[in-house]
Amino acid sequence: MSEKIRGNPIQSASSEDINATFDRQQKVLLMYSDNAKTYIQLSGAALALTLTFTDKILHLPATENIANYWMIAVWICFLLAVITGAFYQFLATKILDAYLNWGHDETWDWLQPGYVYGTMLIAFYGGSVLFTGYAIVRLRHI
Q1: pTM for the whole structure
Q2: What share of the chain in percent tops pLDDT 90?
């Protein structure tokens, strides 16, 4: 976490300024965290959709292996979106923790939550594009 968030400016700021900054940060981070929660839920549903798609749409027999390179890439993307979404929520909480006047764990302060959030978005949309490509290719062969 950068010094401008948890360093000297906060230590030299008044209690009222710290509280106002905390309240603003809390509102913004809550919106991002709610959005991350939505991506976590959508990614979990998309993981289930990949299995349903092969069964209900493609009518592949239960004995056929669906774990090809396309599906493995899709699963990795959606799983990465779930993991990074949850990790973003943790990091957002850590930012707010830095505004409080007690000691906080600085283990993850070097990692900007925006990078984790961006990774979540890339993983989700990457999985969506890959799954759409997979579906188009497979549906052409039916």
Answers
A1: 0.80
A2: 44
